[in-house]
Amino acid sequence: MVDRLIATWTAPPTGDRRDDDAFAALYTDPVALNGTTTDRGDLVARYRALHAAFADLAIEVVAERPVADGLAVVLRQRGRHTGPLAGPAGVLAPAGRGFDVLGIDLLGVDGAGLVDTIWVVADELGRLTQLGAFGDPPG
């Protein structure tokens, strides 16, 4: 399942119904995202925004462990900032810089094998620092 999730999130968006179909094959609608009921279409929008902001996007599994009714996954995400990145503090203009961050996903999986719950902890501060959102990154 994790390989299918990574393949979907790293594949360039088609911009049409195929994006929605790819997510429908993996996620329930709605899905619980960090405790909030979220339409699957919002995941597709996040996926498209991710690709609009970053090129050379790659996700690597660092560790994966089964948990009751799902999986815990540690992921390394890399890419290059080539488009506007919207966030809580506004929009960060493309910097052309690369990033390399870790995140942890706890995925709940329903009886049909679809992800119905996602808890995500990601190093967004580390990514923003690497992209120069607070000035030049150290070192």
Low-confidence stretches: none
The CATH topology label is: Nuclear Transport Factor 2, Chain: A
CATH class: Alpha Beta
Strand order, main sheet: write it out: 2-1-8-7-4-3
CATH architecture: Roll
Report the principal-axis shape. globular
Order of helices and strands: HHEEHEEEEEEH
Number of DSSP strand runs: 8
Mean pLDDT: 95
**SS field, number of helical segments:** 4
Summarize the structure.
With about 140 residues, this protein is an alpha+beta fold. It has a single domain, classed as Nuclear Transport Factor 2, Chain: A, CATH 3.10.450. The protein is built from 4 helices and 8 strands; from the N terminus they run H-H-E-E-H-E-E-E-E-E-E-H.
Task: Write structural notes for this entry.
The protein is α+β, with helices and mostly antiparallel strands. It has one domain (2-130): Nuclear Transport Factor 2, Chain: A (Roll). Helices cover 27% and strands 45% of the residues. The protein contains four helices and eight strands. Strands 2-1-8-7-4-3 form a six-stranded mixed sheet. A hairpin with a 5-residue loop joins strand 7 and strand 8 (115-122). Helix 2 (17-24) packs across helix 3 (40-53). The longest helix has 14 residues, at 40-53. The model has no long low-confidence stretch (mean pLDDT 95).
